[in-house]
Amino acid sequence: METIGFGNGADGVAVLTGTDAPIDSAAVGTAAATSLSATNPSFAAGQIILVIQMQGTNAGKAELNRISSYVAGTITTTRPLAYTYSCTGNDKAQVIVVPQHSKITMSGSFTGKAWDGTVGGIIAKFCNGEATIDQSLLGTGIGYRGGPSAGTGEGTSGEGYPRYGVFQETISNGNGAGGGVSAAPGKVGSAGGGGGHAAEGTQGGPGDGTGGGDGGLTIGDSTFDNLFPGGGGGAGSGNRTDQTGGAGGAGGGIILLFCQSITVTGAIRSNGAVGSNAGSGAGGGGAGGLIFIRAGTATIGTGLITAKGAAGGIGGGSSGGAGGDGRIRIEACKITGTTDPSMTITTTALPWCAGPMGIL
To answer: Disulfide check for 78: which of 66, 83, 110, 252 has CB 3.0–4.6 Å away?
Structure first.
């Protein structure tokens, strides 16, 4: 993602608490064009926007741009779009306004808006002053959705990057994990696999004579040229009569914090959600999400920033697979602290370390 500054502070001091309510919309646009089809009455000139292809063709491609004007469902951007964004069939893209704060504080835990198949799954903030995270900033379980329980039938695969929605299959759905095959009446069903991200999810436990769902595959890399949430865990299967399979846990979301200074004494978490327990096959755990911080100074404590995969649920002899860990990247002039999993660190040759930067 292109390097820019930390915003102009136009949105003032933010006191984070409760659940995020971003200005967002499904989005459609063509590379090299300066128009984006998106509808939200709160879009306005001067706002910085993040445009991202969540699923399908060009999945993971994302860019920051600025709104020049907005009229009745059409955003005009200040710069040509770098990529094509589609919402046709399995393709799902969204645009979200990234607020430009002068300072960020917290008065309680703050949770991101969950991905619903059209929008959500992202926490994104600029701050050209100090951001103090002394409570919990949470993207846990707001990413790709886990497979829903199919009752006494076959487990459903978790959601991942190539496809929209969930499917009745045992193979991995990209980085969303497959559910188990349903068992014969009176027998124990098999469990869903864990979601994948930086690491593959593990396979769900077998039922009576049937293998568990595959774990989700790895996706993305440490450069963060592409941005992905964690994959959803697969749902376990029932026994076709009276035992239902457990739902898969959702993956962690995408957290983007671009701040002049950030201090973490509470927590920043984008973990997967645990798979559901069941009398038959249990659900697989969601994969860890993605956390990307750019800062002048980042004081982050020890293990306070996490993007961990979640455990699978416990079933009737068939436990769900665990989700794989996600990714953390911090680019700052000075970094103090550690993360779990270990972060990718960049501290040299950063444009903003040499002096103030302009914005889009």
So the answer is: 66
Other CB atoms within 10 A of residue 34 CB: 15
CA distances 109 to 106, 133, 257, Å, are: 7, 10, 16
pLDDT at 234: 93
Going 26 to 217 to 169 to 276, the CA torsion angle's sign is negative
- Please, what are the domains in the chain? 13-120 (2.40.30)
What are the Cα distances from residue 290, in Å, to 43, 211, 214, 295, 303?
26, 30, 22, 17, 15
pLDDT digits (tens, 9 = 90+) for 309-349: 999 999 887 899 999 999 999 999 999 999 999 999 988 77
Q: Read off the pLDDT of residues 223-279 as tens digits, 9 standing for 90 and up.
A: 999 999 999 999 998 888 888 899 999 999 999 999 999 999 999 999 999 999 998
Cβ count within 10 A of residue 315: 32
Tokens of 241: 């009569």
Note the pTM of the prediction, 2 decimals: 0.96
Neighbour tally for 54: CB within 10 Å: 31
Instruction: Classify residue 284 as exposed, middle or buried by CB count within 10 Å of its CB (0-12, 13-18, 19+).
Output: buried
Integer Rg of the chain from CA: 20
CB atoms within 10 A of CB 185: 12
